Amino acid sequence: MVLRVYAVACGDSYRVMPGGLTRVTSSLDSLVVSMQKGGGSKDTWVPGDDAAPHLTLLRPASHPLEISRATFDLPSRVADNLFWLGRYAERVEMAVRLVRAILPRLSEESERASSAGVETGIQILRALGYLPAEAVEESTAEARERGVLAMLYEIEGKSPLARTMEQVRQVAWLLRDRISGDAWRVLSRLGDQLSAPAPAEPLLISSAQDRLNEVVLSLSAFSGLVMEGMTRGDGWRFLDIGRRMERSIQMTEVLRYGIAESCGADAGVLEAVLDIADSSITYRSRYLTSVLPELVLDLLLVDEVNPRSIAFQFVQLVEHIDQLPESQSKIRRPQEARIALRLLTSVQLCEVHELTRPDPAGRWSTLDALLGRQLAELRALSEALTRRYFSHAVTSRRLLAP
Fold first, then answer.
1. Is the pTM of the predicted complex or chain greater than 0.85?
2. Are 98 and 33 in the same domain?
């Protein structure tokens, strides 16, 4: 047995405190008390003649509690986990919407519009890291279908989508005392939906469509619980900042690889992009059947009332960041607030018809340059928030989709 005692300064001398830390060996034959080597610890009691003083900082039971509107304290690690929960959940949703938009078009690939939509979707999945390079190079419908389905089913090891979902569950587990039971059950069900085994071959496509629809509903349920159930404190704000930032990144990648790089004036490409962005109904209600690149960009890039547009995300980011503790100074906006305002201004001042004007090489270089700058600014915004609020955070977190 080893008894370690402690002394505290008392005037010009020290006073030894009663009790201490007692370590014991695992057996009589060993002198090692380290807990790593099998040792243990024991409570140490010091008997005395007088009764121990009773001290407490709690209010007496008869004292009424004052009304408080304050939210819970938010340690930086909790803020970091909430931020990344929002980002990971948004990654899963965009990947699911991409696959859901591609699968119906695979069976209609003989049609020109469907073929263009499949090509666009696969290029975007490849850019986001969900499909290997050979999935883009393969030209047969069977090979493309196999590559897309591999995202959903563990055909050769764990699917990329399942790995992303695992990140959601890991972060959610760390936040189990900060999110509601309903939200935790939705995320658990979501993980089960994405890890279920593949069905028999004849039912593979239809089963995949059903699974994707269920996942979208689960993600919508989680978003609804977040928006309607969480107190509007800094915790909710960091979670929504993560969602808005990730949706901005994903939508920027969709427009860059779906429209800008391919000069996407093709109707099939534009329809696929609208489908991926869940904005087809909004577009049809405004413009009926005319699918034009300028109108698609206006809806998905600069429209501040479309919840799926990039401009909408930037408006939300500016509002949230202005409410954070470090933004309350009236002297100068912090770096993250300046970056968010710069992002919003970049889309508010752009001219859509100029973005689709081809350069001498026939490319939409103005649009591509704008989207490239936005991606760089979004990475800088994530780093600024990390330095300001998540000082403990390690650099192993991925800032873009896996």
1. no
2. no
